[in-house]
Design goal:
Order of helices and strands: EEEHHEEEEHEEHEHEEEH
Number of strands: 13
Number of helices: 6
Helix content: 10-25%
Strand order of the largest sheet: 8-9-10-11-12-13
Distance between the termini: 54 Å
Shape: elongated
Length: 293
């Protein structure tokens, strides 16, 4: 059983290729959870026994719920899925919801996707990734605190910059090799990369002002050594403070959407790559020149 997960800006879609059964279907992530404190949900080592949680996942996928009716690949996968979700539950002493699985292959690491039940899925934003390695399992759940911290810092900067609540940034992690307790004086040491989506009201930042704001935001990012790709969206006739992460993809289709400005630092941090929907040109500018504007 192999589940391929495509993470979009505002949704999770699961495409399931079910081992050797020869059919493909699209499903919603199974809304199944596990309470590791219950004795009946202990990991099963027998190929003839499936616990209730495993049966729920299989049923949600439209698969048989008896071990002897599964292929060897499907049986191995449901056992591994259970081991990986149990790893998360026990490590963090909270309940996680299964959202997808990639079985191991030549160029593919065995991977589980899940999200904490208390936080919810939030359109894929709270997805936790568990990967198998020679020593067991690793996960990226601990990275979330530093991403949330970076998002909070950026929002504070923007609201202070405009002296307004009509601007908001949503962060999603691209790469993380630092924990919050490893930061020094608010410095991310170029070990955190994010994709941030920013919305700002035309009343405080219009098309003629957006590059000036971008330059000042770039200065702030450079000072804090925070990497990533940054998209500033200008909208009108909207209360920015009420926008939620789940609305992002819809807003691009609204009549209230005006346009965007994007930028990122080059790999060596010596250039800024920037573009705008207002002129449709992609430019590279030396970082000293860009930040001096």
């Amino acid at each position: 059983m192999k589940k391929l997960i495509a993470l979009f800006t505002a949704t999770i879609t699961s495409v399931v290729c079910l081992g050797s059964c020869g059919r493909t279907q699209t499903t919603k992530p199974p809304q199944t959870s596990i309470n590791t404190s219950q004795a009946e949900t202990s990991i099963q080592t027998s190929n003839d026994i499936l616990n209730d949680w495993q049966k729920e996942v299989l049923a949600a996928e439209g698969l048989p719920t008896e071990a002897n009716e599964l292929t060897d690949s499907q049986l191995r996968s449901i056992q591994r899925i259970y081991e990986m979700i149990t790893y998360l539950n026990e490590k963090y002493s909270e309940e996680f919801i299964y959202a997808g699985y990639l079985e191991p292959a030549a160029n593919q690491t065995e991977t589980l996707y899940a999200y904490p039940r208390l936080l919810g899925n939030d359109y894929g934003r709270n997805t936790v990734t568990v990967k198998a390695d020679k020593d067991g399992f690793t996960d990226d759940y601990s990275d979330r605190s530093i991403v949330d911290y970076a998002e909070e810092m950026a929002n504070d900067f923007m609201k202070d910059y405009f002296d307004s609540d009509q601007v908001i940034a949503f962060f999603k992690v691209n790469a993380c090799d630092i924990k919050k307790n490893e930061m020094v004086d608010g410095d991310f040491q170029w070990k955190l990369g994010v994709s941030d989506i920013i919305f700002v009201n035309e009343d405080i930042c219009n098309a003629d002002q957006v590059e000036e704001f971008a330059v000042n935001y770039a200065k702030w990012l450079y000072e804090h050594e925070l990497d990533g790709r940054h998209r500033i969206n200008i909208v009108k006739d909207m209360d920015i403070s009420q926008i939620t992460y789940g609305e992002i993809s819809d807003i691009y289709d609204y009549d209230t959407y005006i346009g965007d400005y994007t930028f990122s630092f080059g790999a060596s941090k010596d250039k800024v790559i920037h573009s705008s929907s207002f002129d449709s040109n992609v430019k590279e500018t030396e970082i000293e020149t860009y930040l001096s504007n």
